[in-house]
Amino acid sequence: MLSLHNMALGYSGQKVAENLDLSIEAGQICAVIGHNGAGKSTLLRTILGLQPPLAGRIDWTGARPRRIGYLGQSTEIDCQFPLRIKDVVAMGAWSGLDFWTGIDSAKSRQIDDALARTGLAKIADRPLFECSSGQLQRCFFARAIVQDAPILLLDEPFLAIDQTTQAHLVEIIAEWRDEARAIVIVLHDLSAVMALSDRCLLLGRQRACFGQTADVVTRQNLIAHDYMTDAQASLLSLPDNAGA
């Protein structure tokens, strides 16, 4: 569905990662990990087409999807703007509308279903500034459900939420995978990486390591890409090398 070839990422000519290769098919989850500044969010923006790669190319199986679902970090949203939860969720339907078309009954049902699936139906009229971090993340997931895209890019979707909310959102991600959607997800929690992802992209020191999750998430790789120190890695129950 999506392939990156010998790509270099960055901005203003400044590279943050290079020699990056990645491929993901329908029904797969690819976790992206790396230290702060390694290029994780830059990668998602590049796939979205919001900024060009410094080198390399992106290939799509067939045509580029008309819709790519994107769930950014909650800090990217101005929660003081006078919007209700259901207004934000309804934004997921905008890509299928034009100047003359409004939200029809089918889309309205889809919005109601997304609110129900994320546990937000009873607080759909709540303004964003009254929402907790967990409610905001559920809101953004509901918007992605309505968007109904074949590929989803999720930027740290479990940041600042409780374990109960995370478990609920993991269930939604698993449903997306079962629906043969391709998912690229930026994560920090290695236990979530190991539990969720089929493949993993590790960024760090302007380098990239991509492959099966069990082969990428090793002590040697995590240290070599500055994800953690030798002392930190020694505390983890992980193989030293790929295939160990």
Topology of helices and strands:
Elements: E1 2-11, E2 14-24, E3 29-34, H1 40-48, E4 55-60, E5 68-71, H2 85-90, H3 105-117, H4 133-147, E6 151-155, H5 163-178, E7 182-186, H6 190-196, E8 199-204, E9 207-212, H7 213-216, H8 219-224, H9 230-233
Parallel strand pairs: 3-7, 3-8, 5-6, 6-7
Antiparallel strand pairs: 1-2, 1-4, 8-9
Helix pairs in contact: 3-4, 4-5
Structure characterization notes:
The protein has 244 residues and is an alpha/beta fold. It has 2 domains: 1-65 and 150-244, P-loop containing nucleotide triphosphate hydrolases (Rossmann fold); 83-148, no CATH class. Helices cover 33% and strands 24% of the residues. The strands form 2 sheets. A 6-stranded mixed β-sheet has the order 5-6-7-3-8-9, with helices on both faces. It has a 3-stranded antiparallel β-sheet with strand order 2-1-4, covered by helices on one side. The chain starts with a strand and ends in an 11-residue tail after the last helix.
List descriptors:
244 residues; Rossmann fold; 2 domains; three-stranded antiparallel sheet; 9 strands
The residue ranges in which pLDDT falls below 50 over 5 or more consecutive positions are none
Q: Averaging pLDDT over every residue, what do you get?
A: 86
Q: Total helix count?
A: 9
- What percent of residues are in strands? 15-25%
Q: What is the approximate shape? A: globular
- CA radius of gyration is 19 Å
Specify the CATH class of the largest domain: Alpha Beta
The count of DSSP E runs of length 2 or more, i.e. the number of strands, is 9
Number of domains: 2
